[in-house]
Amino acid sequence: MTVKGTFPTDVFQSIETPFYYYDTNVLRATLDLLKKEADRYRFKVHYALKANAEQRILSIIHGYGLGADCVSGGEIKAAIQAGFPASKIVFAGVGKADWEINLALDYSIFCFNVESIPELLVINELAAAKGKVAHVAIRVNPNVKADTHHYITTGTAENKFGIALSDLDKVIDVAQSASNIKLIGLHFHIGSQIMEMNNFAGLCSRLNELQDQLEARGVFLEHINVGGGLGIDYHNPDRQSIPDFANYFATFKRMLKLREGQTLHFEPGRSIVGQCGSLISKVLYVKEGVNRQFAIVDGGMTELIRPALYQAYHQIENISSEESIQKYDVVGPICESSDTFGKEVELNQTKRGDFIAIRSAGAYGQIMASQYNLRRLPNAVFSEDLI
Ligand code: LLP
User: Fold this and answer.
1) Regions of the chain short of the pLDDT cut 50
2) Which of 106, 146, 168, 233 fits 240 for a cystine, CB–CB 3.0-4.6 Å?
3) pLDDT, position 146
4) 126/337 Cα distance (integer angstroms)
5) Global pTM?
6) What pLDDT is attached to residue 240?
7) Exposed, middle or buried: residue 54 (CB in 10 Å: 0-12, 13-18, 19+)?
8) 299 CB near ligand 1 (under 6 Å)
């Protein structure tokens, strides 16, 4: 079998492109380390389905005993279908529809992460109609900056997410006096693709202050959920294919003063699935421009929107060629100029029919695909099925 890097390019010949290729060895190795490091401190991990909700990926993750972080009724259904127990499902989101709240109540999920007083009152009402008590954590906007793209920072004051620190006392009072709500925790999330442990340390300091204030008011909450956000190395997917979970969890262990009897929860998405996936496309044409050459591939922003939407960098490789390096603008077939995966990308000399791998695409790749231009949604191919 011809293999370049970790790609079985021979086998790819018989698969229709573009498709997502998932290296399940990378996924399992990532989960092994995550589990080991989280268990060390008895931290609870809920996988954020929004990063990738392929059933096979979900069932592998479920096999490691993780819980699920869902942001829609669809994700709750997918999690349940993959075997995640409802008792380990958290449900977040600023705009939960009534049917989604009802679905979550019917399953008696572990916790609703609530983002406003009106939402709290609706959950209380719907729970009362079913004769149930909804477990709730209040999502607090900690006003902590995260060094990441402004589209994916969520924890600062001008953001739509969470409840402002200044309103927290009021919201706690409302939650504690609602008959069909049991307030069990606080929830935070400062952003995504965060590489600086200092940002998480900043969240811990804010949380410590907050806990002191709550303690002074006689409020004790059993669960603290610090969200997700740990980043991955998009520039060197092979050098560090598994994120530094040891350092990540140790930062919280060191910085956060948990109270007696409190459990700490996490909601990682990208750091679990990001590096195991690549978008595989075929080169349709190599076109000579005025002062550049274009490699036009059959995958586009419809399959992977991150470069177009966030100017995100993904490493691009020609996995069919060993020829000398040349520079190409790698572009897709969609009728939008932003349908460009990379400019002046160094690739082994490229010709029609070569396979191009766009790396680190396991998170927010396939799940964000669209049918714009009436294109087909991409399929998923798993390494363990090809052997
Ligand atoms: N928890 C909450 C409340 C979140 O909002 C998110 C992500 C996560 C957990 C998971 O974060 P992660 O561990 O994956 O960083 N589409 C964007 C990312 C959007 C992230 C939204 N929230 C991208 O492609 O970069």
Assistant:
1) 1
2) 233
3) 80
4) 47
5) 0.96
6) 85
7) buried
8) no
